[in-house]
């Protein structure tokens, strides 16, 4: 059988793309290397989304919770399972794509399934929905491989009455700091910036972290970066900055901020380290297909109107288009339209007359409204 499309990746946008294909009558095969919503399965327990439920709802199916609260990762995974069952989507989880060959109209996809058997499929087009958070972003510091240093954290309970150093200053780092402090953890934060900027943080997180730093409950080391991890110790060094930035750091969160002079080093007692330094996408499939990238973040080249890459017949949807995002611009929230654009382009390429409705993506039409990236930055 030759499919109209082979869809790779079963995160939220991959599932949404599959639901559009199903409703449009496009024959497709859906492959996922891990579990459904694999990235979210690695989240710390009970972690809430930063986005409101209506922004991360997919396929026109609203997210209903008991108290209309922000959903957790566990709740969202249950929601994704529900969407898959509502639309009766066939997703082949734990089947990793190992190679893609051919060209538009005749792609050959090779996979390896859970039992280790090799499978081969044919399709006219390929849609990549692999996401942008496949592996942690290493900072290349001696000791980063030590067992007490991690790019992931699972539960605040693990650090109860121990000293935890969090490296980073964005939403994930601040949320971890707040949750761990409330669980009885001795928390310190090292951040390259002069202050935890309220323009880059969710307002509720900024309000809480600023209060705790000002009152000496959480130690804050602004304008610093780790240069070595040792058992029980982390060496922080002051980063080079303008004098006025150092003054800003000292006053931004009150006198409690612990400033280290540029170039100077200080050893900080630490039992555990959480590196909230972000993630990077796996671009191996993209490179093997010859998909070009642009900019420092290696954003895959594509046509925003159709989501087709520079390789004819290969489409990219979801956060993958952002590459190795540092200043996040592409979210689930802003990616719903990718599905309808790609579906329309694929339908046009196979001479079908199916109409693709905008109501097939995003939240339920009664609670859907236009949203752009500037609304969620």
Overall tally of structural domains:
2
What is the end-to-end distance?
43 Å
Low-confidence stretches: none
- Principal-axes shape call: elongated
CATH class of the largest domain: Alpha Beta
Number of helices: 9
Instruction: Give me the secondary-structure category.
Output: alpha/beta
Rg estimate, integer Å: 23 Å
| Largest β sheet strand count, sense and barrel closure | 7 strands, mixed
How many β-strand stretches? Answer: 19
CATH superfamily of the largest domain: FAD/NAD(P)-binding domain
Provide the succession of SSEs: EHEHHHEEEEEEEHEHEEEHEEEHEEEH
In the CATH classification, which architecture of the largest domain applies? 3-Layer(bba) Sandwich
Helix content: 10-25%
Overall mean pLDDT: 91
Structure explained in plain terms:
By secondary structure, the chain is an alpha/beta fold. It folds into 2 domains: 2-135 and 279-375, FAD/NAD(P)-binding domain; 138-275, FAD/NAD(P)-binding domain. It is 24% helix and 24% strand. It has 9 helices and 19 strands. It has helices at 12-24, 38-41, 53-56, 73-86, 171-182, 203-214, 243-252, 284-289, 336-349, and strands spanning 2-8, 28-31, 91-92, 96-103, 106-112, 118-128, 135-136, 149-150, 163-167, 186-191, 219-222, 224-230, 233-238, 265-269, 272-275, 279-280, 293-294, 299-300, 314-316. The strands form 5 sheets. Strands 1, 2, 3, 4, 5, 6 and 19 form a 7-stranded mixed beta sheet that branches. A 5-stranded parallel beta sheet has the order 8-15-9-10-11. α1 runs parallel beside α9 (336-349) and α5 packs across α6.
């Amino acid at each position: 059988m030759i499919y109209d499309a082979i869809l790779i990746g079963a995160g939220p946008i991959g599932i949404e793309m599959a639901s559009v294909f199903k409703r449009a009558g496009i024959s497709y095969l859906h492959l996922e290397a891990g579990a459904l919503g694999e990235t979210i399965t690695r989240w710390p327990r009970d972690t809430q989304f930063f986005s409101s439920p209506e922004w991360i709802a997919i396929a026109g199916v609203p997210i209903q919770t008991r108290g209309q609260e922000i959903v957790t990762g566990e709740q969202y995974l249950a929601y994704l399972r529900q969407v898959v069952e509502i639309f009766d989507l066939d997703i082949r989880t734990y089947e990793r794509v190992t190679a893609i060959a051919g060209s538009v109209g005749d792609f050959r996809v090779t996979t390896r399934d859970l039992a280790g058997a090799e499978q081969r499929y044919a399709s006219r087009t390929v849609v990549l929905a692999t996401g942008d958070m496949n592996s942690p972003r290493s900072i290349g510091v001696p000791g980063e491989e030590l067992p007490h240093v991690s790019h992931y954290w699972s539960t605040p309970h693990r650090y109860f009455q121990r000293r935890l150093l969090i490296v980073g200053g964005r939403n994930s780092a601040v949320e971890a700091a707040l949750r761990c402090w409330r669980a009885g953890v001795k928390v310190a934060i090292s951040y390259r910036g002069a202050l935890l900027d309220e323009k880059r943080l969710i307002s509720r997180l900024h309000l809480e972290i600023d209060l705790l730093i000002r009152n000496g409950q959480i130690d804050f080391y602004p304008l610093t970066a780790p240069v070595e991890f040792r058992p029980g110790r982390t060496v922080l060094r002051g980063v080079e900055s303008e004098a006025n930035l150092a003054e800003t750091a000292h006053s931004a969160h009150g006198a409690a901020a612990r400033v280290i002079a540029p170039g100077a080093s200080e050893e900080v007692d630490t039992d555990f380290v959480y590196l909230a330094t972000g993630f990077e996408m796996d671009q191996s499939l993209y490179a093997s297909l010859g998909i070009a990238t642009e900019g420092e973040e290696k954003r895959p080249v594509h046509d925003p109107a159709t989501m087709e890459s520079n390789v004819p017949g290969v489409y990219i949807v979801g956060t993958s288009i952002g590459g190795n995002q540092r200043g996040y611009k592409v979210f689930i929230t802003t990616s719903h339209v990718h599905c309808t654009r790609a579906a329309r382009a694929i339908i046009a390429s196979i001479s079908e007359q199916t109409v693709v409705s905008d109501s097939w993506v995003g939240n339920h039409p009664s609670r859907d409204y236009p949203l752009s990236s500037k609304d969620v930055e």
